[in-house]
Amino acid sequence: MNDYRSPPSPASSDSYDVIVVGTGHAGCEAALAAARIGCRTVAFTMNLDNIALMPCNPSVGGPGKAHLVREIDALGGEMGRNTDRTSVQIRMLNTSKGPAVQALRAQSDKRAYSQSMKSVLEEQPRLDVKQAVVDDLIIEHDQGVPHVAGIITSTGTRYFARAVVLTTGTFLKGRIIIGEQSYPAGRAGEFPADSLSGSLARCSFRLGRLKTGTPPRIDGRTIDYSLTSLQRGSDSPLFFSHDAREAYRNARMSSPDARAPIADFEAARHGSDPAWRSQLPCHLVQTTQETHDIIRANLHLAPMYNGGITSVGPRYCPSIETKIVRFAEKQSHLLFLEPEGWKTREVYVQGANTSLPEDVQGAMLRSIPALRRCEVMRAGYAIEYDYLPGTQVYHSLESKPLRNLYLAGQIIGTTGYEEAGALGIMAGINAARRARSQDEVVLRRDQAYIGVLIDDLVTKEMDEPYRMHTSQAEFRLLLRQDNAEERLGALAFDLGLVDEQRHRRLEDRRRQIETIVSGLDDSWLRFDRETTRRLDVLGCRPTRQNVRARDFLCRTDVHIGMLQELGLVPSELSDEVAREVETAVKYAGYVARQEGEVKRLRRLEDRVIPPDVQYDSVRGLRAETMERLSRIQPRTIGHASRIAGVTASDISVLLVHLEQIRRQPVQG
Amino acid sequence: MGIVRTSGPLSTSLPEKLFPDLTPAWNSHHLRQGQLIDPTTREPVDQAMGVVMLGPHSYTGEHVFEIHCHGSPLVLERVVSICLRAGCRAARPGEFTLRAFLNERLDLSQAEAVLDVVRARTNAGLQLAVRQLSGWLTERIQPVRHELVGTLAHMEAMVDFVEDDIPPETDAHTRGQLEAAMRLVDLLLDGAEQGIVLREGATLAIVGSPNVGKSSIMNALLGMERSIVTPIAGTTRDTIEETLEVRGVPFRTIDTAGITATHDVVEGLGVERSKKTLDDADVVLLVLDLSRPLLDLDEPAAAAVESIRNQTHERGRRLVLALNKADLKEQLDPTPLIARLQPDFVVRSSAVELDGIADLRNALGQAALGGERHDFVVGNVRHQAALRRARTALEAACAGIADGTPLDLVSFDVRAAAGALGEITGESVDDELLDRIFRDFCIGK
Question: Does B200-369 carry CATH code 3.40.50.300?
């Protein structure tokens, strides 16, 4: 690590507010957020042709992940918009399991996604995008405290900034493993970043090693689709982003028969709604006994089983070989054949993650009837990379060892584009705020999935890549994908990330929902013959007396559409508003309970732990707890209580200690 | 003997004021005897002993002063008021233990157990508090909670891994799992009710006309079980309640002399006044003399009992009918009275026959506990509250499944139930849930 002394190096140098290293899903959001807030920003990429690449499944969303995308969108981020511009298929999952867990999931056109994001970066004022390999950080000291002041590229060029965001993905000492072969790579066909890893280790970061993997891609022309089952996209319009929803609504209003002006990439097929874009279907196949036999016969060639890989992979993305070993009793596993875009024949085999040798991958796939003649275009592989366990950053995503350095994405142990994007936008926001000497922004667990994600990362010492699930959000009834804008819109406006027009629209919508919901208390469903007849037509149990509209809507066999039919609620509502009203009423009791819980826990969050607490001097703490607390440095009692292995009695000991400190007379 | 304790910095200056005759050299942990005087009036109050215990080597961890004086409520009350005038304030309930906890003299579970021990009025209550510490409750709850987290893991897997081919569970199966958990919680909650009775006791009214044998029954009960006479903290110090321990339940007896007083009968006031008295009773013991026919004299008692039979009572008041003097020749057919009063227990007793008294004791115990005594009893209030929350949540989850409530709401209730049980066992759902999902289901499409 070079301490920067002066004068500047012979190579040219330049100065920015914020430097972002990497232009994957984290880097793009970080760079855009910083520039949109008003910072002069530069983003470095090793390859300008691979911006926002989707090296694994070109899919966005799913439970937990869709929630993140909606939150990114509410914060003015790009992932939702870019997905809406480029998806080949979108669906709503969990439609029957309740609004809190309903989730959008889209398949993107991989190439289009990357190109579209590249254009967005290029058009963004105050943002420069440069191709360069970053080798080192410029470190300065302020009264003995080290902070980062810029970066040095592999050509020796120095760039200075008030804050630096690192989003290195799988590139730090990346190594690809297929069968018994292995070679250094950042992603398939790309060089790893080998120097930066060493620089970070010298700055007293602890480095760990993670593993992830990707399945083979096959040639769509060699699939016998007649032997697969079909999975269609949505017939009705669905969008991640506010902007696409608005664009669609405006297009419909100006010309009801118009087709949506959304994608340039789609074929000329129509769904049921002429304004809604066409969808590419996915297909399902199942592994056979023969598939399992082939895998078992070749397990000795699988790096996971022959010692070629020792690092830990994610449990929710096991390789096909792992599934067959661990769930030996299962006769068959589902595989999804997912198109990678409108203009390519490549098909992603979801569910067949593997690092078996190439020829075994082919043989394994060809044991499935629909894939008898299939040709592998790209082999699946496993990749190992360095990461910095997340407990080394604060909730602001600023690193603990080095001030002004922010980390986002796989570098702090997540997996997934959505998780990366979520961390990226928060790192970008906080880096920009540091550059402008403003307070940090931290989202709470009861406020956003992003808050849950970051709190988990900085609190729990995980040994596998972190993926967002709805079950990790204890307040998930409050954190619906539908109300992301209600939760974060005002903050986004304050930060300067969404414009006034959008903010006003949001406020109008909020008022509209409130008016309708409170109106439900004053309107009644009469008990008379006519109503009973109409209820019967709607397929709904009759009432036995006059019923308040709110109570009627609470019934499980009643939905908001019926109230509209019955004239109790205006019929010209947008789908979102109607859905929000229904949710607000049906969930009211549960939401109130969760809010009560939030309030109760907030008291623990309000008990701040002074940063100078010496845990080894707390009498009665177990040694391992002392060690954990010293390492993670929780900010509040609530935060400390979420650290794995910290028990209720540890917390009471800690409370006693803090109480003692408080009672001590102030010195001098 | 009674003890008055002070805790805090004043504790080191109080001794000189209250024991002016002694030299001011109060060594820590040395008991000294002397004349306790009231500093304002200089009047002697008691020949007493005092001890100073300097912090942190005291129960609360602070400086403590204790006065060991005579146990008469009058003396105790005076000593307390002297201390209050000298600058102390009255301790809140459990405050010494709270301070001990804050000063690290006790950990949370010890502090809770101490409070329970302190509050226990009987041996049964004491055993309960002690058993609490040994983890027997955790052992009972753990397997049920484990099942519940399994159910939850399945629901969460269904929600989070939509396309992962998770085999769906039938509603009936899920409800079966939830109802099994509910059965255990119910059993423990029954025990919790008993825990309250065992710790806090029940009120017993013995009713009957003169000479039916109330006193002999009382004496027989006292003779067979240890009788305790205690001044009870928190009540006025000049009254002493008589406490009778039957089958582990501390009974407080209510004076019902008025009920059968002849002049009341004459004036017709008896029934009204007795109703009021009986209102406070958890258990009413009506005693009849089998050896003589029913007399007019028995009617006020019977009428009073009848009048409170239909009133609601928070724990469900029980009636025990004792047919006394069963060793003599029977002159009374109790059938009409039994039909009229519908007693919960009917016992043939005889003060001279031990069998009858043993039956009576069983009947009184069951009447107070609301049934047979459980082998396990949840005494801790925090645990009881957690069980009640688990019960409510399980009920809501079952109802939700029945009327087609979406899975995210049902799972919210199941999670709340597992969370409440986890508060007792000290386990957190959050830490465990993902592990269970990945262990139980093949995830990763």
Answer: yes
